[in-house]
Amino acid sequence: MSEKDSSGLDLPIAVGLLASYGMVPEAAVQNALFSAELSLDGNCRPISGILPMAITAREHGLTEFYVAPSNADEALLIDGLKVYAVENLAQLVRHLTGTETLTPAVTKQIKDTKDNAFSDDFADVQGSIRQSVRLRLRLAGGHNVLMVGVPGSGKTMLARRMPSILPELTKEEAIEITKIYSISGLLGRIRACDHAPLPQSASYLLDGGDDRRREYPSSGRGDACASRRALSRRVAGIQQEDA
Question: What's this model's pTM, rounded to 2 decimal places?
Fold first, then answer.
């Protein structure tokens, strides 16, 4: 048996105990996944990593996913699951025993808007012709970019404007990147471009420091600037691509 290493196991542990004591029918939990933190008064609190959990639940044939209300929109990104937003443990018990019926959560309908996270436009670049042409060619080909130069040569200025000329992500690409931020607890913290504190070693950039601040693993699909493009559209908004 492995140790409990996440507050997200609070709810499934509670449900497992209730089912083992016969307080909720086992049939009601057979095809369901439960994930939320429980406060001392039994209220459900949101946790990180809901999106990859939803993907795994669907891959294993589960049909229902019970989460805290704040995590419902994230879980709804994955088709094929009934997502239930549970306020507290007592409400969940009433639902599982049939004395109360919870309504599955639905995707919030929001208008598709352009990215608002990127205030720096590549069209504003003046001069730096050779560098900007090379950068556009690299980005058009989907290549990684390493910029080296003396302070004041325009590296940061160009890097901040890279997201404005990147192509839109497909839904699959957006979900792939958003999984990283879901696990890291960084959803909703939108920045156009990441800046690693300098100076930093290669070890930090690849696999060092705080788990939530590892630059290369958190970048996803190329570079740190490109990653924020997935987050620039609110979590619930990605679902609109299927409409």
Answer: 0.69
